[in-house]
Design goal:
The chain folds into 2 domains: 2-157, Response regulator (Rossmann fold); 161-279, 3-Layer(aba) Sandwich (Rossmann fold). With 280 residues, it is an alpha/beta fold. The strands form 2 sheets. The protein has a 5-stranded parallel beta sheet, sandwiched between helices. A 4-stranded parallel beta sheet has the order 7-6-8-9, sandwiched between helices. The protein is elongated and about 60 Å long. 41% of the residues are buried. It has helices at residues 2-14, 43-49, 65-80, 95-107, 120-126, 128-132, 161-175, 192-208, 226-236, 248-260, 275-279; strands at 55-60, 84-90, 112-115, 136-140, 155-157, 180-187, 212-220, 242-245, 267-269.
Length: 280
């Protein structure tokens, strides 16, 4: 029971405290968010977890400033509870590699796995052995298809996705003076986090900013193609005032396209900000 409580507290610590305040943000299956402020562990709880030999595995979809920050926070909390990290992996956006990472992690016999599933369908099968082995699963932002909370996994943790998309739209409007033409590069995959953020950005622009027009839309699944896609978009629409990019890694490619064209006019708005984009 205490282990379950600790998992819940860790999960809450990674969730934005404001998540429950906005009805627009719900879980992948319509779940209502719980604010992090409602999940705490006492000193007695922490003391009871120590010296039990509990082990954890961190299985991420990629390596980025975002996952590095999550890893740092989880590592600190695990250390406080006397839980060792047995495995850390990076699937590099490869579903097959993520499945292999899960098998590697299970060989270390962790008590809890923190992971961001790449694809709801393939990850459902990939994590099934962990469920059978009784490993407590805490998912970050994405959920394997048909998994049930309390039966298949302990908790899912995410941000206030609706507000992230809305604030990205508000930032775009400020950057271009409330009017103009923008491009919209969205994540063309069944991916809960980016789908909600992308849709929120688009809906906010269309609803709140009548003088801003989305004149070009392009889906992306491989971040490595971002520069190529941005070049094509800019070729068709050289007068773009701004480009929304679904997350930081492809935004770096869009930035390269703007640099290559000597374009200092078009503004970029993105999420999960990484250092190279932030510094430009």
């Amino acid at each position: 029971m205490l282990m379950k409580k600790w998992i819940a507290a860790l999960a809450g610590g990674l969730m934005l405290a404001s998540a429950a305040a906005h009805a627009q943000t719900v879980g992948p299956q319509g779940e209502t968010a719980t604010p992090s402020s409602s999940l705490t562990l006492s000193d007695a709880d922490i003391a009871a977890l120590k010296d039990k030999g509990y082990k954890a595995a961190l299985l991420w979809h990629t390596s980025s400033d975002f996952t590095n920050a999550v890893t740092a926070g989880a590592t600190d909390e695990f250390a406080r509870a006397g839980i060792s990290i047995a495995v850390k992996t990076d699937a590099q956006f490869d579903a097959a590699r993520q499945r292999s990472d899960i098998e590697t992690a299970l060989a270390a016999k962790p008590n809890v796995i923190l992971a961001l599933p790449l694809d709801p369908v393939t990850s459902a099968e990939a994590f099934r052995q962990a469920v059978k082995d009784g490993v407590k699963l805490v998912f970050l932002s994405n959920l394997p298809k048909d998994y049930k909370q309390g039966t298949d996994y302990a908790s899912i943790v995410t941000d206030d996705l609706y507000q992230m998309g809305k604030q990205a739209a508000d930032a775009m409007a400020r950057a271009i003076g409330g009017k103009g033409k923008v491009g919209y590069i969205f994540h063309d995959a069944n991916y809960y986090v980016t789908n909600q953020r992308d849709q929120s950005f688009k809906k906010t622009i269309e609803k709140d900013y009548p003088d801003i027009k989305i004149v070009a839309e392009q889906g992306i699944s491989d971040p490595a193609r971002a520069e190529e896609l941005a070049n094509a978009m800019l070729l068709q629409h050289p007068d773009l005032d701004g480009i929304y990019v679904t997350w930081a890694e492809p935004a770096d490619g869009v930035l390269s396209a703007l640099r290559g064209a000597g374009n200092t006019h078009t503004k970029i708005v993105t999420l999960d900000l990484a250092e190279p984009v932030a510094l430009d």
